[in-house]
Amino acid sequence: MSSKPIAGPEIERLIQLLARLPGLGPRSARRAALHLIKKKEQLLVPLAAAAKEAADKVRVCSDCGNVDTADPCSICTDPRRDPGTIIVVEDVSDLWALERAAAMSCRYHVLGGTLSPLDGVGPEDLNIAGLVDRVASSGGAIKEIIIAVNATVEGQTTAHYLADQLADTGVKVSRLAHGVPVGGELDYLDEGTLAAALQRRSDF
Length: 204
Fold this sequence. Notes:
single chain, two-stranded antiparallel ribbon
C-alpha cells in the first residue's frame, strides 16, 4: 500500500529536502517543516532569504578548503595567525570545532574526508595533493603539519598516508594526542582509549 501525500507538492518538497539533513529522518523533517510553516514570518521567510544569500555568496577557499564568503578565506588572510603551522582536518566541521577551542592560532587544510578503499575513496578524491603543494611552494615557511583526523581506522590510515607523502619535505609532522580526556573517569573509558593513553604516557 503506497503512502499518499499529506500536503501540497511545495510542502512535500520542503519535507524531502529537510529529511536529507544529518540527524533528520522523515518524521523529524515533517515536524521541522510544520514548525517552519507555523512560524512563517519569523522563521521560514528569513531562513529562505539566508539560504539564498549563502548559496550566492559562500565560496570554498582555494588555499585551505574552508567555506567563507571570500577566497582566500578570512583565516588564510589573517596576519595574526602563524603561517608556519597547518592543522590538517577531515572536514570543515572539524575546523570549526578547533576554532571554538581557540587552542592555537594557525592555519588549516581541509582534506574533504578520509581514505576508505571499501567506499572507493582514494588519495585522488581528497585534497592531499593540495597539501603537499602548499608545503612544497612555501619555500620552507611551513614548519609543522599537525594531522588532526578522527581516531578511526580510516582516519589513522589517512594520517599514515599523509606522513608518508610529507616525509621528504623536511617539515615536522605531528598528530593529536589520544588518551584520557580532561575530566574523564577511567571507569567510563573504552579499552582503546585507555590503551592509547598508556602508550602515550608522559613524564610527570
